[in-house]
Amino acid sequence: MCGIVGCILKENKDVATILFECISMLEYRGYDSIGMATYDNEINIRKAKGDIETVNGKVNFKNMKGHLGIAHTRWASTGKPTDENAHPQLDDGGSVAVVHNGTLENYSQIKEELIGKGHKFKSTTDTEVIPNLIREYMDEGLDLEDALRKATGKLKGSYAIVAFAKDEQDKIVATRKGSPLIVSYGKEGYFVASDTPAVLNHARNVIRPKEGEIAILTKNGIEIHDKNGKSVKWKSEYIDWTPEMAQKEGYDHFMIKEIIEQSDAVENTLGQKENIKRVIDEIGDVKRICFVACGTSYHASISGKYLIESLAGIPTDVIIASETKYTAKTWDEDTLVAFISQSGETYDSLMALKEARKTSKTLAIVNVAGSAMSEEAEFVIQTQAGPEIGVAATKTYIAQLTAIYLFAGLLAGDDDLIGQLEKVPAYINEVTSERDYIKELSSRYDLADDAFYLGRGFSYPIALEGALKLKEITYIHAEGYAAGELKHGPLALIDEDVPVFVIIPPGEDYDKTMTNLEEVRARDAIILSVAAKGDERIAENSRMVFEINPEVTDIIAPLVYIVPLQLISYYVTLDKGYDPDKPRNLAKVITV
What we know:
Blueprint: E1 3-9, H1 16-24, E2 33-39, E3 43-49, H2 52-59, E4 68-74, E5 89-90, E6 96-104, H3 107-116, H4 129-138, H5 144-152, E7 157-165, E8 168-177, E9 182-185, E10 189-193, E11 205-207, E12 214-218, E13 221-225, E14 237-238, H6 254-260, H7 262-270, H8 273-283, E15 288-293, H9 295-311, E16 316-320, E17 335-341, H10 347-356, E18 361-366, H11 372-376, E19 379-382, H12 395-412, H13 415-421, H14 424-432, H15 435-443, E20 450-455, H16 460-474, E21 477-482, E22 499-504, H17 510-522, E23 526-532, H18 536-540, E24 544-548, H19 557-560, H20 562-575
Parallel strand pairs: 15-16, 15-17, 17-18, 18-19, 20-21, 20-22, 22-23, 23-24
Antiparallel strand pairs: 1-4, 1-10, 2-3, 2-4, 5-6, 6-7, 7-8, 8-12, 9-10, 9-11, 11-14, 12-13
């Protein structure tokens, strides 16, 4: 899940400043190391371990010469974060430069073959085999494009590759399989990148090459060729996201900006109501629904299961994408397999989607138009969160939930639920307007080393997501549990040093959840509750309470009650001195 950029300018001026600006916009995809390579009669390369600003302070990327170049910001998968493992990677002769996003499953075998032919390696990355393979084939007489095509024929795994060579200094080539890649053009020149925020300041017209196609960028234009080298007619889409949408706009971090933008994400996604109605009509009758997702999207899917089964009576399963091989044989023509993904490029989900297409109806709920999953699925619902830069998902989660709620409500013909959804943006704004209060509470409370989150029914996925947010960015061990599971093991871990978050909205599960709250209180746990405003019973039994508008019912609680938990995680992270936008070991868009 690295960030990659390539650029060639129409005029013969230095590309480095533009290239640096573009790669800086992709730091959310990886920040272990950064590097750039440009061409000016020779390949110039600068790279090092560290975040973008730190490394730039050492090497000054912006004064590199050359009118074309490639850049990379890394999230380490194969090979530790080191100067040697930073991209771009060169062949051992220094004549081919490559940046790569993805993971090669057979690089060890290829590396052994290349060593046997006399090639020498400097890094421990899988990527370094790519420029050496390209060089090997160019030495056989192939041009850069054909050498890349032949090289990818040997690669197993996922990749987005951008390369240039000393032999063909006015050309950049790029291809993809299982990893995101866009090609774009503007007044200054032509671009290739792993995500649209990289190029928004310079180009809005985006082309999305299909797997196996090769994009060729020169200062005269763009060509797309298929696997046989034949020219492909391409079409572009105009991206209406503004550059400002992908910037902090005065906020200290993207995460807090995106938490506050959640009311807009809900309102904008509610605007998809008619499209979702159409999708439901086109899908027709199904006897079973199966959600497939990872991480935060998995938690959104659990809410979907509860909604669809309770409102529409359709059996619904939720499967972790990487575990689908154990379920796929049960999918048939009466099954709708729904894939939830922020990026639409999540590798495990994408592979499962390709399998599901063989037997079942498929639906993708994604935030990125034209993404691989939206191209692969039979039906698509587009969430409207806008670009999300913070690694820990917030507004894309809320947008996914909104789309799922609309889908379930329309499927079941539940007008009351649809009416409740219209009020959610206002409820979220009420919560975010109290963020100074949450900040003050967070600053005077130490969350210790462990935390538990408890909820029943529709509050159970809130507990899961709340715990995930805490562990992602504060590095506190946190677990979300169905409250009724307390007595089946977790209660043994509760004592006076353990904070327990209890999600307890008004509704049919209130009394049973209250019983669970009293169980942890009897063990002297530190109870922090999220409950309806004015609930004196909760206040009497909790160390801290964050109060929510009492109009918020238990069924729509996942859309509102998660917001204070996101804010608590954010402020605890700041108290600990960590960067909430850049959690260790994590990055945006899972492609491995």
